[in-house]
Design brief:
By secondary structure, the protein is α/β, with parallel strands linked by helices. The protein contains 6 helices and 5 strands; from the N terminus they run E-H-E-H-E-H-E-H-E-H-H. The protein is globular, with a radius of gyration of 15 Å. It binds 4'-phosphopantetheine.
């Protein structure tokens, strides 16, 4: 039984995240999405809202669950009896930070490995920040986020 952890801020979840989640769910027995609580990024959505939107978005995936975590990611990974972190890589711009995190995590927890999935081409430009920017300017959001997120995002931006 192999469990993998997909961590992030998910402020909000995008179709790019969902693509990585769906592909991970096909690779591992169980995927736990870890929503970071103590983010320094001042999220637009509360922890509860982010967890609820994700739960809704993955409701069709039987082996995926959503939890939140505080503190170090590797502690959460171990607590869940896993040793695999999943991260999506969009472009070279992601590489530096992702490599730094993966290597740092391995120094702190040598048993924990990070598996990188390349983002599908159609989502290579997509991020939660881009989505929030488009929402502010009234762009149709259906290409960017799961349907359940759209009304909440429009509401929040108002
Ligand atoms: O969606 P994000 O904001 O790119 O996700 C970043 C995340 C949550 C993976 C990263 O900030 C994280 O792991 N935070 C928990 C604290 C931690 O373990 N820090 C050490 C690695 S940077």
């Amino acid at each position: 039984m192999i469990t993998a952890i997909y961590p992030g801020s998910f402020d909000p979840v995008t179709l790019g995240h969902l693509d990585i989640i769906t592909r991970s769910a096909n690779m591992f027995d169980k995927v736990i999405i870890g929503v970071l609580n103590n983010t320094s990024k001042k999220p637009l959505f509360s922890l509860e809202e982010r967890v609820n939107m994700l739960t809704d978005a993955v409701s069709g995936l039987d082996n995926v669950s959503v939890e939140c975590f505080n503190g170090l990611l590797v502690d959460f990974v171990k607590q869940k009896k896993s040793n695999i972190i999943i991260r999506g890589l969009r472009a070279l711009t992601d590489f530096d930070l992702e490599m730094q995190m993966a290597q740092g995590n391995r120094v702190v927890a040598p048993d924990v490995d990070t598996v990188f999935l390349s983002t599908s081409v159609q989502y290579s430009y997509l991020s939660s920040s881009v989505v929030k920017e488009y929402a502010r300017y009234g762009v149709d959001l259906k290409e960017f986020v799961p349907e359940c997120v759209i009304p909440q995002l429009i509401d929040k931006i108002k």
